[in-house]
Automatic annotation (TrEMBL):
Keywords: Metal-binding, Methyltransferase, Transferase, Zinc. It comes from Streptomyces sanyensis. Zn(2+) binds at residues 220, 283-284. Its cofactor is Zn(2+). The keyword Metal-binding applies. This is Homocysteine S-methyltransferase.
Length: 302
């Protein structure tokens, strides 16, 4: 169902349920995500699989579907031999597929276009380190064309997500300035700091006072990290919080495997809401079953 409210209007009234990890749902459907483009490859090779994954999350009750553009970049598609115009069309397809699933749902569903960090297109795990060693302005120049392409496709919000450091957050916000679509900014954090080791208050300060920022928070982090980070984000920016941690397992980019125990459950939801969260869901290894378990909790008063 196409929403009658803007996302910003909805966040002023409700806490919305995000979807979970797109990649794990695609893998559960039998998709091969090997290669540098990861799930973005399926925009060209198997778009019906992406649509099916979005439908699975909509059936689970998700009110915001995040498109398959996290790893979609002009540079990444060029390495595959995809021209610039076709690459832009594939990015637009990521929004269209999420929108198609949203409009089939029996409840209001918004669409977020994913804008992953620079390190994601390198496919070497550097999005969990940041500090890429690029000259000033390079990150903004990298992100601006894809942000423009995704914004032109008409999503309800741009998800500037899994951002490892404040320098890249600043570049993303600058690149999104004036794009005509609201954004949320979501850091990946560890040990109470950004993945690049920066103080969270200083990191969240880059979003303070910026028009068009609908929410600020964290994703793709250990669940126990989320509450404290949300509290900092709310105190520094005064914006609604967004939180979608991963399962608690850890990705080894060398072995290309997940390790550790699952720590994601519904218990912290009330504390997340108390800390200001208005967008709540899951990231890597959090599937439709866990998203469905969150749905009734978000229907209750905080």
């Amino acid at each position: 169902m196409r929403p009658v409210r803007t996302l910003t209007e909805a966040l002023a009234e409700d806490t919305l349920l995000l979807d979970g990890g797109l990649s794990n749902q695609l893998e559960a459907q039998g998709c091969d995500l090997s290669g540098g483009l990861w799930s973005a490859r399926l925009l060209a090779d198997a778009p019906a699989q992406i649509l099916a994954a979005h439908r699975a999350y909509a059936r689970a009750g998700a009110q915001v579907l995040i498109g398959a553009s996290y790893q979609a970049t002009f540079e990444g598609f060029a390495r595959r031999g995809t021209g610039r115009r076709e690459a832009g069309d594939l990015m637009a397809r990521s929004v269209a597929l999420a929108r198609a699933a949203a409009e089939e749902a029996d409840h209001e569903v918004w669409v977020a276009a994913s804008v992953g960090p620079y390190g994601a297109h390198l496919a070497d795990g550097s999005e969990y380190r940041g500090r890429y060693g690029l000259p000033p302005g390079a990150l903004e120049r990298f992100h601006r064309p894809r942000i423009e392409a995704l914004a032109a496709a008409g999503p309800d919000v741009l998800a500037l997500e899994t951002v490892p450091d404040a320098e890249e957050a600043h570049a993303l916000l600058e690149a999104a300035e004036g794009c005509g679509v609201p954004v949320w900014l979501s850091y990946t954090v560890a040990n109470g700091r950004t993945r690049a080791g920066q103080d969270l208050a200083e990191a969240f300060a880059v979003a303070a006072g910026r028009r068009g920022v609908a929410a600020v928070g964290v994703n793709c982090c250990d669940p126990p990290e989320a509450g404290a980070a949300l509290a900092v984000a709310a105190a520094v920016t005064g914006r609604p919080g967004v939180v979608y941690p991963n399962s608690g397992e850890h990705w080894d980019p060398v072995a290309r495997a997940w390790h550790g125990a699952v720590a994601f459950d519904s218990a912290p939801v009330h504390s997340w809401r108390a800390a200001g969260a208005r967008l709540v869901g899951g990231c890597c290894r959090v599937g439709p079953d866990r998203i469905a378990a969150l749905a009734p909790l978000l229907r209750r008063p905080p």
